[in-house]
Amino acid sequence: MTNKTDEGISELREKLWQARQVVVLTGAGISAESGVPTFRGEGGLWKRYSVMELATPEAFSRDPKLVWEFYNWRRELLAPLSPNPGHYALAEMQRRIPRFTLVTQNIDGLHRKAGSTDVIELHGNIWWVRCTGCGKLMEDLRVPLPEMPECPTCGALLRPNVVWFGEMLDPQVLNAAYEAISNCDLMIVAGTSGTVQPAASMGVQAKRSGATVAEVNLEPTPYTDTYQISISGKSGEILPRLL
Ligand code: BJW
Ligand code: ZN
């Protein structure tokens, strides 16, 4: 028996293997099956913690120790986790499709762990730190980091190299994403609630440039009726079926 999910998968599979240039945009939902909590919804991080107390530059200026405690807790949680079949399916797609760009809002590094390369990380990466004094960027895999980690070069306080609310995304990173989006003929938007800008509008921009846009999500989002294809289900189950 075919159902709506099967029909959506068949339609998307056909488009995928005909497309000249493909962009995939992922959000927290793609890592949910690896055990990473999402931000919003049931069991979401923001239900337990206040965003404004933790994920803004103002919060970090006010109480850097508290913000580092939050990120250290998340680093501990993430360190032992592995990619799931959704991450692996995207890595395999990249190997098979010559013009393929993976854009993620996730900071967990699991796409790279699964073998994806040249991942465009819109919101940074939790395993990188940046010096608030000299601006130096460093990969730092220590778990946990000291309560108030210091720059080895200048001694100033380090911060996580992630993008907080009210901060600009790195213009080079953003441009690379827009460049791929404006040239793609198929975009897959997987596991994101579509609530945080500018990533939330990227699917609409692709559609405006003439691309087919497909959503893969457990639940409807504000864009479900806007995109041409909508597949309801777990990304770790749907994405492998496209291969
Ligand atoms: C599954 C699944 C499974 C579950 N399979 N699916 C008004 C006031 C102030 C600011 C603004 C404003 N209006 C707009 C703004 C700008 C603001 C913004 O968008 N705010 C909105 C909330 C309104 N944006 C910014 O500030 C950005 N910067 C910017 O725009 O600069 C210019 C500017 C500056 C100032 C003012 C205005 C403009 C920066 C945004 C940075 C976002 N940072 C975070 C934290 C990163 C660090 C960290 O992790 O600690 O990024 S917030 C958080 O949300 C994180 C995520 O990347 C991001 C998106 O979340 P995502 O991925 O969509 O996750 P969820 O949890 O929301 O959804 C999960 C989905 O998965 C759900 O749909 C589930 O159904 C699904 N799912 N399991 C498939 N197995
Ligand atoms: Zn420094």
Q: What does this molecule look like?
A:
The protein has 243 residues and is of the alpha/beta class. The protein folds into two domains: 4-36 and 83-123 and 168-241, Rossmann fold (3-Layer(aba) Sandwich); 37-80 and 125-162, SIR2/SIRT2 'Small Domain' (2-Layer Sandwich). It contains eleven helices and nine strands. The chain has helices at residues 4-18, 29-32, 45-48, 51-54, 57-62, 64-78, 85-96, 110-113, 171-183, 202-208, 235-238; strands at 22-26, 100-104, 120-121, 124-131, 137-139, 158-162, 186-190, 212-217, 229-232. The chain has a six-stranded parallel β-sheet with strand order 3-2-1-7-8-9, sandwiched between helices. The radius of gyration is 18 Å and the shape is globular. 37% of the residues are buried. The mean pLDDT is 95. Bound molecules: ligand BJW and zinc ion.
List the keywords:
Rossmann fold, SIR2/SIRT2 'Small Domain', 2 domains, six-stranded parallel sheet, three-stranded antiparallel sheet, binds ligand BJW, binds zinc ion
